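Design request, C-alpha cells follow.
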C-alpha cells in the first residue's frame, strides 16, 4: 500500500514536471519574432493519461500550437516583410501563468504524498524494531 502511494505520486511528479517544462518553454518564447516566411514558435501542451487500474498519471503525448502564430504589423522590425508584417507565437501569457500555477500546485501535492508515505514507512519500521 505504501509503495503504491509512492509510485502513484511519483508518476504525478513526472507528469507535472513535464507540464512545468512545457509551460516555462512557452513563456520563455512568447515574444519570439519570426519572419513571415518562417513558422512562429509553436507552444507545447502536454496530454495526460490515467494509468492502468487507476494507478498514476502519465504523459500520453504532446500537442503543438499553431505554426501560423499571430501576424503583427511592425514595419520597423528587421524581420518584417515588404508589407511590414512579422509573426509572433500564439501564446497567451495569462493562460500560461494559470497553467504554471496549476502544474506547480500539482507537483507540490505529489511531492507531499511521497514525503508522507516515506514518513509512514519509516514509522512502520520503527514499530517493528521496538
Amino acid at each position: 500500500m505504501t509503495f503504491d502511494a509512492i509510485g502513484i505520486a511519483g508518476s504525478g511528479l513526472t507528469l507535472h514536471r513535464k507540464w512545468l517544462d512545457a509551460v516555462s518553454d512557452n513563456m520563455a518564447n512568447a515574444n519570439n519574432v519570426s519572419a513571415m516566411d518562417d513558422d512562429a514558435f509553436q507552444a507545447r501542451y502536454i496530454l495526460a493519461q490515467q494509468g492502468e487500474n487507476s494507478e498514476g498519471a502519465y504523459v500520453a503525448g504532446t500537442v503543438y500550437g499553431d505554426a501560423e502564430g499571430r501576424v503583427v504589423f511592425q514595419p520597423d522590425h528587421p524581420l518584417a516583410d515588404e508589407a511590414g508584417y512579422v509573426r509572433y507565437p500564439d501564446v497567451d501569457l495569462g493562460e500560461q501563468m494559470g497553467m504554471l500555477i496549476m502544474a506547480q500546485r500539482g507537483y507540490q501535492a505529489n511531492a507531499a504524498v511521497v514525503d508522507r508515505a516515506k514518513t509512514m514507512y519509516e514509522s512502520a519500521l520503527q514499530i517493528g524494531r521496538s
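Comment from the thread starter after seeing the answer: thanks! Helices lie at 2-28, 93-129.
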